[in-house]
Amino acid sequence: MNRRTFNKKTAMGLAMAGLSPYMPSFGQSQGNVRLGGPVYQRYNSPEQWVSALQSKNYRAAYCPVSLDAGGDEIRAFEAAAEKADIVIAEVGAWSNPISPDKDMAREAFEKCTRSLQLAESIGANCCVNISGSKNPVHWAGPHQDNLTPDTFDQIVEVSRKIIDEVQPGRTYFALEPMPWAYPDSAESYLELIRAIDRKAFGVHMDPMNLIITPNLYYGNAAMIRSCFKKLGAHIRSCHAKDILIREDYYMPQFTEVQPGLGVMDYQVFLQELSQLKAIPLMMEHLGSEEEYDQAAQYIREEGKKIGVTV
């Protein structure tokens, strides 16, 4: 949808479709979003870590310590983040707990529980992983059995076990959406929330990963609104990426690109995210500090256009 042609008729149409239309109010403050990204400066103390974040005007951060960190180190970084008003967005537990390789699945389960415990200890918004894959070669790759009822049930069972093992009281275990693994849509994420049935199961929102058809590619603004309408109350952290479609080929081929170089509607993304309280937007997968700086500048400029401080 072209934001410049947004009107009452468009809003009514979106409302009838069950989506969340909004009319940007340019120049009027609508809220704020906490942006974060990787830290390139080396740090040997919580103070140096905070200084590195503040030099980029980040108000959110990835977890600054490893799984082997001791209690004193964890508490020091948590205190420094709280003092500097920085939200620790997420602890990554990237692994494959539903792998057909039993040893890999067991190691992944242990990594997930340790990561969730670290998120709980340091006060991170969530511990995030993908649900996993049945691919025997690529741990996060596509496979014909990924999107089956049996795999869905296994994801539910494993997620429950991870949460029950740690029993977190202030953080959440969340699954990043993937194009070829559950959750692959807002609807399947809702099904997982209901099936897992644990208060400590949350949502990690990465809308780029949900763009799997040209219709969603060109209509990503409506898709983003729909995701926030259905999942907003459960969202704990978000990723900031962008996407392009190859135009000289006859089958859809999507490429992840730096925010600002694709078609992701960041004005809609930021507008929706700004309605939530202290939920971070974390940039990832870029190749250099300069690219992160450029992406941050673009995201902040898009925010300014709709009155959202980033």
What does this structure look like?
The protein has a single domain, classed as TIM Barrel (Alpha-Beta Barrel), CATH 3.20.20.150. With 310 residues, it is of the alpha/beta class. The longest helix is centred in the middle third of the chain and has 21 residues, at 102-122. The strands form 3 sheets. It has an 8-stranded parallel sheet. A two-stranded parallel sheet has the order 1-12. Strands 9-10 form a two-stranded antiparallel ribbon. It is 40% helix and 14% strand. It contains 10 helices and 12 strands. The model is unreliable at 1-29 (pLDDT under 50).
The rough form would be described as globular
At the first level of CATH, the class is Alpha Beta
What fold name stands as the CATH topology? TIM Barrel
CATH homologous superfamily classification: Divalent-metal-dependent TIM barrel enzymes
Give a quick rundown of the structure:
By secondary structure, the protein is an alpha/beta fold. It has helices at 8-16, 46-55, 71-83, 102-122, 149-166, 186-196, 214-218, 220-231, 266-273, 289-305, and strands at 31-32, 35-36, 60-62, 87-92, 126-129, 173-175, 201-205, 235-240, 242-245, 254-257, 281-283, 308-309. Strands 2-11-8-7-6-5-4-3 form an eight-stranded parallel beta sheet. A two-stranded parallel sheet has the order 1-12. The protein has a two-stranded antiparallel ribbon with strand order 9-10.
Helix-strand blueprint:
Elements: H1 8-16, E1 31-32, E2 35-36, H2 46-55, E3 60-62, H3 71-83, E4 87-92, H4 102-122, E5 126-129, H5 149-166, E6 173-175, H6 186-196, E7 201-205, H7 214-218, H8 220-231, E8 235-240, E9 242-245, E10 254-257, H9 266-273, E11 281-283, H10 289-305, E12 308-309
